[in-house]
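Entry 0007
Protein: BTB/POZ domain-containing adapter for CUL3-mediated RhoA degradation protein 2
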Amino acid sequence: MSEDSSLPQHHVQSFCTRPPPPLSCPKTKICSYRGAMGLGNKYVRLNVGGNLFYTTLQVLTRENSLLKAMFSGKKEVFTDKEGWILIDRSGKHFGSILCYLRDGNLNLPKGRQAVQELLAEAKYYFIQGLMELCHNNLQGNKEQPLCEIPVVTSVKEEERLIQTSSKASSNLGPVVKLVYNRSNNKYSYTSNSDDHLLKNIELFDRLSLSFNSRVLFIKDVIGDEICCWSFYGQGRKLAEVCCTSIVYATEKKQTKVEFPEARIYEETLNTLLYETLPLPDNSLLEATRRSYTNCGSHSEEEEAPGGPEPRERVRRIHVKRYSTYDDRPLGH
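Output (structure tokens):
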């Protein structure tokens, strides 16, 4: 019998079945502030949510707060094996809190959300002065909308807005109106119509953000059209771009919505010619009213009663004309 076989059987099993040692967590201990500072360091070493800070006892105990209670011996603190005092809190704004405790004032971070986060930390540490500073900032700096878009619900309201529109002076300014009413339809839509309708709405939003200081943008959600743009200058309608048409599929009619992005951009820029008085000369205005029949779309000009006055013409551009639409009137 060999030496290995002569070993007791239970000794062999103990070597083979020994479990691995459990994972150890960082060792911490609870002590008072004086115990944590037993090494006599000049600065207090803080670990706040994994962020390391050095500061002095004078700063931490300057105001009657949770930090003063922790570092005056009234409240126990946690320390790791290296002597860092642990605070189980996010360290994102702790630097701002230390700055406030040092100076008694603070340049608050930009953005409403950042101030709200700092306010939450100030409440946790119970720093009364910083809480008031954040509250005053949030109440005094309410977020302002980038632009305001009126939504008209009647013809009279629309006429009042157009006749009183002014962005830069006492003159009647340019106006761009979008009518969109998806439910105003008796047929089914083509496959791309919903996507094109959304693109028209998104373009309206982009234009309103770009030109809101110069052009009044209006939304109309109760008009007779499904998707139609109207452009006004000095209180008069200058042009209209209708984006809907009726197409004939197999044994049925469908409503199609187009997205003539370039044409809409062009008409919006043309309205800026009417931004201020005096108006441009007739040759320039006439150049913006040239026929678009060569571009594959239909256009027509309506003359005012009494003669072909150039400034009284309205250009109506339809991507495709309606063939019939029962008794529902065209335009709005």
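Curator remark: The mean pLDDT is 76. The CA atoms of residues 111 and 257 lie 40 Å apart.
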